[in-house]
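Now read these lines:
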Amino acid sequence: MENSEGVKIESTVVTEEPLISALDIALFVVIITVAYFWYFKRDKQSSSSEKKPYTIQPSSLSSIEQTSNSSFIKKLKSTGRSLVVFYGSQTGTAEEFAGRIAKEGARYKMKGMVADPEECDMADLVEMKEIQKSLAIFCIATYGEGDPTDNAMDFYEWLQNGDADLEGLNYAVFGLGNKTYEHYNEIAIYIDQRLEELGATRVHEIGLGDDDANIEDDFVSWKEKLWESVCSHYGIEETGEESNIRQYKLVDCSEVLPERIFSGEISRLKSYENQRFPFDVKNPYLSKIAVNRELHKSGDRSCMHIEFDIDGSKMRYDTGDHVAVYPKNSSELVDKIGELLNADLDAVFSLLNTDEESSKKHPFPCPCTYRTALTYYLDITSNPRTHIMKELIEYASDPKDQEKLKLMASSTPEGKKEFHEWILRDNRNIVHILEDLPSVKPDLDHLCELLPRLQCRYYSISSSPKVYPKSIHITAVLVNYTTSTNRVNKGVATNLLAQLIPTNDELPQPTIPIYIRRSQFRLPPKSQTPIIMIGPGTGLAPFRGFIQERDYARKEGREIGEMVLYFGCRKKDEDFIYENELQEYVANGTLTKLHLAFSRDQPEKKYVTHLLEQNADELWNIIGEKSGHLYVCGDARSMAKDVHSIIVKVVMEKGQMTSSQALNYVKKMEQQKRYSADVWS
């Protein structure tokens, strides 16, 4: 009955109901309403967050732009270029060198472009052979413990894991490294060899730049010979044309709305007012300074204990990590540049790349005022490189100033000597140069184009998240020194930090942008593993975190292994930092032994290296017989090298090994992460 009625009703609907029922109309109205609401709500959100009446966006690409621009081959072909210079850069130097090479290519009728391998599909290297007389140059820095820079990591892994046929690719490599570190230019050397293994043709031998000596000199010398090899390989000649062509053009932004002007943000406009997790190199967290206290007991030097408040930030760190601090230049130096160049520092401007195909539209976030650029974005305290000397020549009205700049910009022995003495030895920065060569009056926008980016500063974290999950501690020495020209040079970051003193009243607390950089400097996975820590001066910083973490484990009832600390400073009553804390850890048994060396408390200087030699039995007992871990933190140039030599000697003598066996033993310790170093030069 029900079935027959159902059929009957269905028949009635088909034959008698109109073409569009009331239900159809209702559904149609609902769909139109939802679509209308979705479209206009999205449009409203877009317009509220992306109003662009006068905005010039910073040099970051959207995901769509990155996809469409990832083929550097298409860019080369569409713009008639044959030279591409890739850079692997952590601090900006490799990127700067890449730009200088690409610019000079015009002198050899090789139109060039600079490319970030992170933004490119590097598999397109196989197509380079399709471009006549093409050349790929790689300016590659080695970072950390023989690691590629962040932006070169994918390319490095592609070379390691791939087997592309690169026959027909012509290339050259310049490496940026530091001889005080064990893995000197390791990444550049690997890339140079791997490209050849994959069939590419090396046009010029690899150049190895040493930042511990004079990396500018290394680069210029290599670059000159590079072009000689290029001319020989391609059968071309230098045109002789100078390449002082501006990479960026000045844009007047006086009409830009105030809310569209950058005021010190690293990448995203108003990012400090509207903080968004996750926080990283392009999106730092604006942390309050919770504690800033002096650690030295007396003397004319200063060492600060600083605590960054990260409560509510969702930031997490591990013991042994680093924290990056974004500094700003002193207003005194910034004002001095404005005074010397008779410039309006509060004028709003932008620098726009003249190369429309470049993914880097601006050298720093734009638009902004000159004051903002000189305060937050540009390095005005380091020694300028020779290419800046060259660019300043045209702005010198005094022939004597012109000649001096020409000499320092040249690659002659006399020029190199003058640059080394007048710039490097006397430690002149751009402010000093403008003061001492008073006829040199560069356009401020051109100067902003030439100066390198102001880089963040890294500090070893001196706390454990187990004990201090809501704060990050650092230990920093205030940097001030007098140069041979009787000027006082001040460390950019530490002098800023010294001024950020938290208050006890209702006033807003001082803040500074930070982010966490992961490290391989780690405690052993098992708390029972014995360890030796060697950290004179502020090298103690990460070990304070190590000790806190082991002390936390002990208080939880877990077994902890031996902890032996070697610490040194000048005088016990002057710069013995964290003395009370360390003595308390000794008293409660967390710190098994505390070996102290006060270099100036007795006629003959005494260092931690002397104590290591005296305690060879203890050293071998922990690293040899008990398979413990050894950690070194501090100066790479002398202390860390001396410690390494002592360790090899102890292993050889106490382990009854030959010299080569001892070296292999220590090498194996490093590979097993039983010998770790967190050092700087």
The CA atoms of residues 177 and 680 lie 13 Å apart. Confidence is low (pLDDT under 50) at residues 1-20, 36-68. The domain at 329-454 is CATH 1.20.990.10 (NADPH-cytochrome p450 Reductase; Chain A, domain 3).
